[in-house]
Specification:
flat; 753 residues; nine-stranded mixed β-sheet; 1 helix; 62 strands; mainly beta; Immunoglobulin-like; six-stranded mixed β-sheet
Length: 753
């Protein structure tokens, strides 16, 4: 697509309302496609490459875009027009190279590039043409800028009058800087550019430009805002502001600090130095193009460096008897052939293994992950295992394990044991271990239920089962050997011990028998005789004694291998007779008016009594009387005792309801003489829950109604002031009494005038 115009131009992306925290960097270059001397025009191809953060959930590349056109120089530029509908091309992910195959790149870093290309024909002018892209915003995690999340970008290139006349081609960068840089490691990145015309190039750090802001997107026809996410090209011409660095630690020519300071070689474009602070940094690079000593063009790029902690990808490690920071010690006791097991990581980054052992002046070399070496005899030998030996110059890519091998005489663990298989008692262990290096120095016994360091220990198990006895022996060379043996341990206890939760009880008595004998478990058989005709087969059973008396308890234990033991406990349990609680009370339905209750004892075999009247009173009388002062539901409890200390309890809940009782007169005279002027119920209404009072005439018309028991009928029709005639009237009263029951009262009254 070619646009023929007679003015300078700038282009501006329109991204709509998307979140804009995405800009990584960008640059603008141009190629001369030809010059028309007759029309005095020159045609250029404009290539704008933008880089975005693909992991920030920010705005994507706009598709399509729109461009604006400017003309001028220095601080004076004039907007001419807008070009629209230019689409993005060649969107791709940038390879996050670190120049080190063993550096693990953080997973939250990603960069995409997108290219916008169009052609434009310009009249050759004494003014410059400026190409500029304005857009907000950058990542708010950038360390070296003030308010980075509110800072936009303006990527520009200027086609000078000399570049127009010469049909010049701008320089082009040969590569994109590394996205990830390791902290405290040299950068050494070649950021040079190529110029097809062979012009001289000079490199320097320069200050990136900013445009736009966070006031929202600016679209054609909307209110003008140069601090919006997408500034309007016509309203917001150059010159553009420069980004603000966090001085004094960071400036445009010291954008990352470092030790040594990050710098750029003006002749080669090599970026060197070692950043020493973690973070994200914006860096601007300018390439000045000279022909015959005259500056004809400046190529500018800004981009974002991510300085992070780089994890070392490979770590040498082997199975060893002991390890220090510098050595792996491998001990072999009596075995001249040693299999070295490699534990090195991460295998994805290990390209080669190199083993080397010095055996009596001769080298044995292996290239497999694991190595098997046969040594000629007793003694000490040294070796190394190197990961990625050919990459030893890269710290993260190579690692070495220094190995010291000691071949010592053999050591053999051995022991025997004996015990009474039927009656519980200690197991006797006898040690027969030997070492070629001399006397055994250390004995480590493990019996599962306990340990010992004696040469010939005795150990008694608390629980039955198939027991594993393990012996580890060690000699003066730290050589060890281990032997495990199984012991079938299923004897019966030498002493049978049980513990009832009580030895005396009141019928019915629930007695729990806790079997404390050892060694036993659920694999044994249990034959209980509780002395009351009942039996049991649990390890620790519970028996309920229903009758009064003294009972002898017996227990037979049978082990899984058939050993038996029987134990009898004469007169172990004594059960006493219990009293029976019980009472009645009168009145059966007490209320707030009739609130004194008489309690009559009906218990059996009781010698004393304890009464509790909820939380408001107690009595020790056999048949007490109690007055309840308020309405409510009360818990009354009788506890009876006999001479043996046995008890029983009887409980009832007694409701004390409000007393509601009223009557209706049969006539009234509403003549205002102060006597019998109102027809109203008379009585006690305390606790009434609902109340409706209605008066009806002989034609079935309701002429009076109230929900207030304190309000009566004054002889008027519905309180209108019109008197009802003398005669007989019906009345109804609906209410809920103190027990919550619905009641209805009907009758007649005579109105006398």
């Amino acid at each position: 697509m070619i646009y023929r115009i007679g003015f300078i131009f700038s282009f501006l992306f329109f991204f709509g309302q998307l979140n804009a925290l995405h800009i990584i960097g960008g640059d603008v270059v141009y190629k001369c496609l030809g010059k028309d001397s007759i029309r005095n025009e020159v045609r250029f191809q404009i290539i704008f490459t933008m880089y975005r953060d693909s992991r920030s959930n920010g705005a994507n590349f706009d598709n399509p875009t729109r461009f604006g056109v400017y003309r001028g120089s220095g601080q004076n530029w004039t907007f001419v027009r807008t070009i629209t509908n230019i689409r993005v091309q060649d969107v791709k992910d940038i390879d996050i190279a670190t120049n080190n195959p063993c550096i693990l790149v953080p997973v939250n870093v990603g960069v995409q590039s997108g290219v916008y290309i169009f052609e434009v024909t310009l009249p050759i002018s004494n003014d410059s043409y400026l190409i500029a892209y304005q857009r907000c915003c950058r990542n708010n995690t950038i360390l070296n800028l003030v308010n980075p999340g509110g800072t936009g970008a303006a990527f520009t290139t200027e086609i000078t009058p000399a570049a127009q006349r010469m049909c010049n081609n701008s320089p082009q960068f040969t590569g994109f800087p590394p996205v990830v840089i390791c902290v405290n490691r040299p950068i050494n990145f070649d950021h040079s550019a190529f110029d097809i015309d062979g012009d001289s190039l000079v490199y320097e750090f320069c200050n990136p430009m900013t445009a736009g802001g966070t006031d929202g997107a600016t679209t054609p026809g909307s209110a003008i805002s140069c601090t919006g996410v997408t500034p309007d090209a016509g309203a917001c011409p150059p010159p553009f502001d420069l980004v603000t660095f966090r001085a004094p630690n960071f400036t445009f020519n010291r954008p990352m600090g470092g030790n040594p300071v990050v710098n750029i070689n003006p002749v080669t474009g090599l970026i060197g130095g070692s950043p020493n602070v973690l973070g994200q940094y914006v860096v601007g690079v300018c390439v000045k193009e000279y022909r015959n000593g005259v500056l004809i063009s400046t190529l500018q790029r800004d981009f974002q460096f991510n300085v992070t902690t780089c994890e070392v990808a490979v770590k040498a490690d082997i199975v060893a008897s002991s390890k220090t920071a510098t050595e792996y010690n491998v001990i072999s006791c009596g075995d001249f052939n040693i299999n070295f097991k490699n534990l090195s990581t991460d295998v994805r980054y290990i390209q080669s293994y190199y083993w080397e052992f010095d055996i009596q002046g001769s080298k044995k070399i292996f290239s497999t992950r694991d190595a098997s070496v046969t040594f000629p005899g007793l003694g000490q030998y040294r070796g190394t295992m190197i990961l990625n030996k050919d990459l030893a110059g890269l710290v993260e890519c190579s690692d070495t394990a220094n190995i010291v091998v000691n071949v010592f005489p053999a050591i053999n663990a051995d022991f025997t044991f004996k015990y009474d298989t039927c009656v519980a008692g200690p197991v006797e262990f006898k040690n027969f271990s030997v070492s070629g290096a001399g006397p055994i120095q250390k004995y480590d016994w493990n019996f599962v239920e306990g340990k010992s360091s004696l040469k010939d220990p005795l150990f008694e198990y608390e629980k039955p089962g198939i027991k594993i006895a393990r012996l580890i022996v060690e000699d003066q060379n730290k050589c060890r050997d281990t032997l495990n043996k199984n012991i079938n341990y299923f004897p019966v206890p030498s002493i049978v011990v049980i513990e009832p939760n009580t030895f005396t009880g009141c019928q019915p008595a629930s007695i729990f028998f806790d079997n404390l004998s050892t060694p036993i478990d659920e694999t044994y058989k249990f034959e209980w005789d509780f002395g009351d005709g009942k039996t049991g087969d649990n390890l620790s059973p519970t028996n309920v004694y229903e009758n009064v008396g003294v009972f002898t308890v017996k227990l037979k234990l049978i082990s899984p291998i058939g050993c038996e033991v029987t134990k009898t406990w004469p007169n172990l349990i004594k059960i006493f007779e219990s009293p029976t609680a019980g009472f009645v009370f009168d009145p059966k339905e007490p209320n707030s008016f009739n609130n004194t209750v008489r309690f009559t004892d009906q218990s059996l075999n009781a010698s004393s009594h304890l009464w509790t009247f909820d939380t408001i009173g107690v009595s020790l009388l056999q048949s007490p009387t109690f007055t309840f002062q308020d309405t409510g539901l009360y818990k009354v409890e009788q506890v009876v005792f006999n001479a043996s200390g046995c008890t029983d309890t009887a409980t009832v809940f007694i409701p004390i309801y409000p007393f509601i009782n009223f009557f209706m007169p049969n006539a009234f005279t509403p003549n205002n003489d102060g006597l019998n002027d109102v027809f109203i119920p008379v009585g006690s209404f305390f606790g009434i829950g609902f109340y409706n009072f209605s008066i009806w005439n002989r034609w079935g018309e309701r002429i009076f109604f109230t929900e207030d028991y304190a309000t009566g009928w004054n002889g008027q029709k519905n309180n209108t002031g019109e008197n009802a005639p003398p005669g007989v009237y019906a009345y109804t009263i609906d209410y809920i009494d103190g027990r919550g029951e619905s009641k209805k009262l009907k009758g007649q009254c005579t109105l006398i005038r």
